[in-house]
Amino acid sequence: MASERDEQLRESARNRGLKLVKSRRRKAGGDFGKYGLKDAAGKELFGFGKSGLTASAAEIEDYLRGAMRSDWKEAAKGLPKRKPPPKPKAAPKPKLKKLKVGNMLARLPAAKRKEAFTELLAQGGVRIERIVSNGQATPADKPFVQEADEWVVVLRGSAALRLEGYAEASLEPGDHLLIPGGVKHWVTRTDPDGPTVWLAVHLG
Asked: What's the CA gap between 174 and 79, in Å, rounded?
């Protein structure tokens, strides 16, 4: 076993460009079974003392392992540094369109001489408009009549409405009703002190 281990140590030293030296002297108190290492030029490197060789086989192994680690670190210094992998690019945020928001109570026309009609939407046979009144009323001899049904709601102000065959109805904000097509109707009053705002939906 000793010769096999010695051969392994010699091979390991040879791979490092070193030479393994082993004492075979059997003098009492001598260095029998001890080892040392020399470089290729014969210079003593490790395991040499005044009285002979001093290193055990385990110490030689440790020295050679340490030398190998040192050489590896030195060699690694010359290796190009690995660049860290590029960070994945964040997916671009989708560009969102801006909603067009209107306000039916903003920038109201004065509507002092006559009612102001503003079409808001016309689609699929439906037409939606804003009506702004300011004290107007329908003349008794000129009633409104339209072919299609009309749904109206008062958003601001106040008004009164009469349909043919029906009693007059007062309307406050939030009040709404349906005016059937072909029926005569009159706006009998609207608020004289400020705008009355209607939303009218014409069906068909």
From this structure: 80
Q: Are 37 and 60 spatial neighbours (Cβ–Cβ below 8 Å)? A: yes
pLDDT at residue 102 above 80?
yes
Region 10-19 average pLDDT = 88
How far apart CA 23 and CA 34 sit, in angstroms, is 6
Find out whether 171 and 154 touch, Cβ atoms under 8 Å.
yes
Please give the model's pTM, rounded to 2 decimal places.
Answer: 0.55
Q: Residue range 166-182: average pLDDT?
A: 96
Phi-psi region of 33 (alpha: psi -120 to 50; beta: other; left: phi over 0): left
Identify the burial level of 151 via C-beta atoms within 10 angstroms of its C-beta, where 0-12 means exposed, 13-18 middle and 19 or more buried.
middle
What SS3 string covers the chain?
Answer: CHHHHHHHHHHHHHHCCCEEEECCCCCCCCCCCCEEEECCCCCEEECEECCEECECHHHHHHHHHHHHHHHHHHHHHCCCCCCCCCCCCCCCCCCCCCCCCCCCCCCCCCCCCCCEEEEEEEECCEEEEEEEECCCCCCCCCCECCCCEEEEEEEECCEEEEECCCCCEEECCCCEEEECCCCCEEEEEECCCCCEEEEEEEEC
**Partners of residue 163 on adjacent β-strands:** 185
Beta bridge partners of 171: 159
pLDDT at position 97 over 60: yes
